[in-house]
């Protein structure tokens, strides 16, 4: 379900942007003979048939200069740590300190990587460099030219690099073919015009992939559904922000959870969320809470992460709490130790790797972590019911 993120790294003017244009077959990335044309990381989506949906990340040169250059290098390193695989682009047989730094970063992040010797039409790959890369770094190096591309060879190398990602089902281990799943999807000011949000779309696809049936309705339609039909769903999944209302209307014998909790489990860290959520009841006056969103969006009065959850936390605990809000994969300005609790959204817009890497430093520092859906379930008094469908199941 997650796209595979492949970072393209190297020095300035080695042809990183030209490489992406060659792969995609379109002039998507700006190219120039002037070193440093690419500044901030730029993402380009592409489908490799039979392999995966990928996102290529074009980065600034690792040898960028000046104060702004150092900031751009920092963003390049951040992009590497968030990626699933990497391609190091070199040219003219130049392999020095900067390239070694990148290779070390790939290995430290546990990423598969490929070295590409670009502009091989101008200067062929030296056999001595091939041997060094193979023996010292245990990596393959591929001669290439964006002007005379052997595109099929490159695509095969990329396919081998990423492999065929194992697609882990959202619900596959708790539902069986032929079962009926009820999806409760409120349509309010936070809902996108004319469409469903990504978690709802992914859930529908997962239900179909598992050969199950789904019924989709809004919270106010639940009583009518149970009045007009004898159907009893095998599982109900709701938007977390209406947890309390839905829990009172869904018969207690029907398992109930939320989109956010399903994605929390799918992305990993589920056990940590279960462990950290009860800390809500131990919050004290002056405690600071970090709210992590995986996407950037317009904030309205019904925003679940920035308005509703903070308000409910203050009301539930009766404490004066402070909040910081971070969107996307932006840097977190404070040390994790400044926070009494971290609450992460479902993470539908980021990969499992990105989400785990984002939270791991906080977990290592002993900071409790929770999830939007679990936090709301705890404050509504239905935490056990909302997590019960997954307890005893293997989690990451």
Description:
By secondary structure, the chain is an alpha/beta fold. It folds into two domains: 4-162, Rossmann fold (3-Layer(aba) Sandwich), CATH 3.40.50.300; 170-396, Rossmann fold, CATH 3.40.50.11410. It is 36% helix and 18% strand. Helix 11 runs parallel beside helix 13 (372-379).
Tell me the structural class: alpha/beta
Low-confidence stretches: 28-38, 297-301
Radius of gyration: 24 Å
CATH top level of the largest domain is Alpha Beta
Distance between the termini: 16 Å
| Shape summary | globular
Q: For the report, how would you describe the main beta sheet?
A: 6 strands, mixed
In brief:
With about 400 residues, the protein is α/β, with parallel strands linked by helices. The chain has 14 helices and 14 strands.
Topology of this protein?
Layout lengths: L3 E7 L5 H9 L17 E7 L3 E7 L7 H17 L2 E7 L5 H12 L4 E6 L8 H11 L3 E3 L7 H12 L17 E5 L13 H12 L3 E5 L4 H7 L6 E4 L4 H7 L6 E3 H8 L3 H7 L11 E5 L11 H14 L4 E5 L14 E4 L7 H13 L4 E3 H8 L3 H5 L9
Parallel strand pairs: 1-3, 1-4, 4-5, 5-6, 7-8, 7-9, 9-10, 11-12, 11-13, 13-14
Antiparallel strand pairs: 2-3
List keywords for this structure.
396 residues; alpha/beta; Rossmann fold; 2 domains; 4-stranded parallel sheet; 14 helices; 36% helix
């Amino acid at each position: 379900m997650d796209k595979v993120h492949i970072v393209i790294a190297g020095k300035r003017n080695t042809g990183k942007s030209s490489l992406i244009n060659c792969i995609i077959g379109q002039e998507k990335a700006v190219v120039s003979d002037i070193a440093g044309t690419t500044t901030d990381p730029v993402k380009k989506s592409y489908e490799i048939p039979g392999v995966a949906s990928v996102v290529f990340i074009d980065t600034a040169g690792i040898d960028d200069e000046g104060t702004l250059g150092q900031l751009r290098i920092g963003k390049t390193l951040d992009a590497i740590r968030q990626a699933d695989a990497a391609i190091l682009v070199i040219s003219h047989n130049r392999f020095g300190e900067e390239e070694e730094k990148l290779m070390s970063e790939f290995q430290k992040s546990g990423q598969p990587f490929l070295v590409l010797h670009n502009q091989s039409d101008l200067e062929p790959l030296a056999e001595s460099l091939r041997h060094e890369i193979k023996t010292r770094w245990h990596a393959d190096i591929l001669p290439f030219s964006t002007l005379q591309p052997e595109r099929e060879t490159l695509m095969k190398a990329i396919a081998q690099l990423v492999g065929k990602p194992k697609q882990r089902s959202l619900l596959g281990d708790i539902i069986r073919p032929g079962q009926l799943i009820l999806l409760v999807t409120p349509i309010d000011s936070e809902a996108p015009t004319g469409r469903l949000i990504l978690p709802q779309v992914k859930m529908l696809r997962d239900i179909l992939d598992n050969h199950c049936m789904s019924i989709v309705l809004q919270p106010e339609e639940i009583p009518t559904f149970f009045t007009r039909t004898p159907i009893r769903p095998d599982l109900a999944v709701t938007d977390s922000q209406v947890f309390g209302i839905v829990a009172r209307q869904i018969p207690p014998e029907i398992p109930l959870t939320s989109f956010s909790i399903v994605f929390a489990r799918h992305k990993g860290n589920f056990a940590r969320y279960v462990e950290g959520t009860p800390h809500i009841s131990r919050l004290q006056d002056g405690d600071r809470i970090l709210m992590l969103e995986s996407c950037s969006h317009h904030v309205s009065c019904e925003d679940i992460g920035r308005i509703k959850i903070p308000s409910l936390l203050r009301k539930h605990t009766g404490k004066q709490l402070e909040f910081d809000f971070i969107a996307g994969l932006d840097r977190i300005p404070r040390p994790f130790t400044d926070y009494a609790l971290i609450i992460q959204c479902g993470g539908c817009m980021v990969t499992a790797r990105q989400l785990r890497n984002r939270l791991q430093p906080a977990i290592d520092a002993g900071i409790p972590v929770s999830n939007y859906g679990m936090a709301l379930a705890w404050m509504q008094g239905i935490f056990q019911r909302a997590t019960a469908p997954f307890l005893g199941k293997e989690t990451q």
